[in-house]
Amino acid sequence: MSGPPIRAHVTGWGRYAPAQVLTNHDLEQMVETSDEWIVSRTGIRERRVAAADETTASMAAVASMRAIRTAGIDPDEIDLILLATLTPDYWMPSTAALVKEAIGNTRAAAMDVAAACSGFVYAYATAQAYITSGMARHVLVIGAEPLTRFLDYTDRNTCILFGDGAGAVVLSASDEPGGALGIEMTTEPQGAYMIWLPAGGAKSPPSSKTIARGEHFIRMEGKETYRFATRTLASTALTSIQRSGLEPADIALFIPHQANIRIIEAVAKGLDLPMERMFVNLDKYGNTSAASVPMALAEAVNGGRVKVGDRIVIVAFGAGFTSGAVTIEWTADPARGIAGDAAVRPDEIKVRLPVDWDSVDPIPDALAEVMRRPGLVDVPLDDVVPGDLGLPAQEVRS
Ligand SMILES: CC(C)(COP(=O)(O)OP(=O)(O)OC[C@H]1O[C@@H](n2cnc3c(N)ncnc32)[C@H](O)[C@@H]1OP(=O)(O)O)[C@@H](O)C(=O)NCCC(=O)NCCS
User: Fold this and answer.
1) Is 117 considered catalytic here?
2) Which domains, from first to last, does the chain contain?
């Protein structure tokens, strides 16, 4: 006897942005650039930088606990943890495994997903498949990146673009209508070397030579990437919308990958929609790769831009070249997110360190200079109201 089809609804969402801010004016001290150039060519004004004791896993764990609190479930109810990142803490174990331990989950399978800036959308689609096939009931999908550790601060073409952060959602099985309506994913390997990080892998293992040649930093062909993005984002979004039986005009809000305001404007133009339908927060965070879509999604929902019944589209592109889009019918009470964020303090979450850990400083020299400046402000998430939890208090496991 077959029941109603299983759907995957977003029941939880959360994000984490490190407190330290690196402004365009700070970058003016480091490379030949200007605030005016960066703002006019990209829309980015500032980005966040993870502190020395923060890692991919620690940022991911905070965003995850916020998403789990928003969903109102116990961490141990999660069956599968998918962590999208191009900056894992280690080659092995997976960063997802570290997050599993940090959030106090004993049951879930955990793995990382490597699809660069499209990683979160790819992981979301994977979670969707697990849930609708009956293989999982609750899946935690995370995007987390400390990208500022992989940038060449002598290369003004790349170092101005990227920042650090994490975002997460919980997808839960439901027999009610809603959740993902249509999904599209593409990979075009002819663009493989347009954005890449040459050394450290099997093709070119780390050595003093690879370090001397600066091959452990992100490299990018900006113009080619820009062309791919403007061509592909709108078409990928459109295919996902059409698979849902909808038109672009039916979509209340697009949550595009936050790479460049001009790319997002091109998507709006390509779909013949006003910019008000595009959510933008890249001015504050820059491009946080796999973290960008879930951070933007959580901010959009908490900021009142999404309501129950809205159709929204998450859409991303990135190295590979990859692209992906999911059209989603929103079903969760948006008010839960602010309380979920506020219920979890970053210092409550502990990621276990390796036994032989002896004070590694992962901050690049050029950045360390800026980060040592006095009077660094601790910027909280702007929409968190401390003390206003709204949810029943639950113990945070660590
Ligand atoms: C990188 C990017 C912002 C550059 O913008 P652009 O308008 O294409 O700029 P150009 O590359 O044509 O450079 C124009 C000039 O500005 C200079 N320039 C580049 N970076 C600069 C900076 N940070 N500050 C000042 N000048 C800069 C260039 O050297 C060039 O000078 P030249 O004409 O004397 O050679 C843009 O190509 C882009 O956003 N590409 C996509 C990147 C992306 O999204 N990557 C992530 C994918 S997930």
Assistant:
1) yes
2) 7-371 (3.40.47.10)
